[in-house]
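Structural prep section.
Before we set up the soaks we want a predicted structure of the protein with zinc ion in place, mainly to decide which crystallisation condition to try first. Input record follows.
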Amino acid sequence: MEVTASRETLKVDDCSDPNSRGIKRSANLSIDVCQKQCKEEKDETGPTCTKRQSSTSVNSQQNKLRLRKVAYVWNEEMGEVCDLLPRVPQREYVDFLEFLNDEDDSEKEQERKEEFGMNHDCPSVPRIFDVAKSVTAASLRGVQALVSNECQVAINWTGGWHHGRRDEAAGFCYMNDVVISLLQLTQTYKRVLYIDLDLHHGDAVQDAFAHTPKVMTVSFHKHSPGFYPGSGNVDDVGHGRGRYYSVNLPLQDGMTDVLFFSLFKGVLMKVQKIYQPSVVVIQCGADTLVGDHMNCFNLTPSGIANCVNYILHWNIPMLLLGGGGYNTPNTARCWTLLTAVAVGVRLNSEIPDHEFFLDYGPDYQLEISPSNRQNLNTKQYLSKIVPTIFNNLDQLKPVSKEK
Ligand SMILES: [Zn+2]
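Run finished without errors. Recording the tokens verbatim:
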């Protein structure tokens, strides 16, 4: 692939810094807008990594020229944007987070912590408010970059806290930057599509918009008894005017790249046809990857990249957010690859030497291989859910193109 960077190069290697994951990274955000002029593959679903590309003749690809601006949100000052936050989280909860910010006595205020969900998987940590507001502000800055047409794709890998409630923390999420960003997008765009690729159901995002057709939510996730958060079954479709605008694909262990993309493409093609979204937000949780500590799905970064690449070809503004991902090097591999796909460059398979290089052993490659575990998403299982989803979508009146 031929690439000409018109101004500055996006530092995709930064994404492979495992120290940049989670809370540590969240405290250090900045914005870097880069512009690349690139030739992209004609095949929308084509190979997304250099290993696969090496078997493809570059000369044989009939590429088309496209200019895509990508904003990578990474700026300390962005925390200030938080002052402009819509007051979505309940003020009392936000005030409590702020109170805890400089509190280093973990035993204090136990009762109130319980009240606001700050226990077990959402412990109070020093500077928690700074972290939560920086993450949210970064996602909002991404929204701002899209709305003002600074870019076509905005990325905040620290975002995607899809379980956070307006008045309590939940599932490692203290403030729901996704809901706040989607709300902000509805101010400008008529139809907002939210796609959740995390292993866990995007429960709080769905609940926030279950009553409105302004935001359609589509979540692909594991669903089985006792698995967090427990919602997101196929008959979970929204309410009132929002009925059938919540779409859920409850899946089983062992999901593969090929099957996942096939389901993704099938459902999203229909969603696009019926809903004609004017902007899209994708939560790219990486806990679906093979080797993740959740040990459920069997996906690789290329599989997830194919999904994102498919939506990129819709050519509508896109906000890419992070999410779960508990195998740090693999999560970094995934988000690095997704960044490259968004920018339109191909990366070398070799992980470059850097401070955390040894974490990428033993092969030090960008790609990872799936395991040979059994895929429990059998034809028989899928035949129970897929037709129902299509049937539900058929209940919606298609949006006419002019609207
Ligand atoms: Zn998750």
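Observations: The two ends are 37 Å apart (CA to CA).
Flagged for discussion at group meeting.
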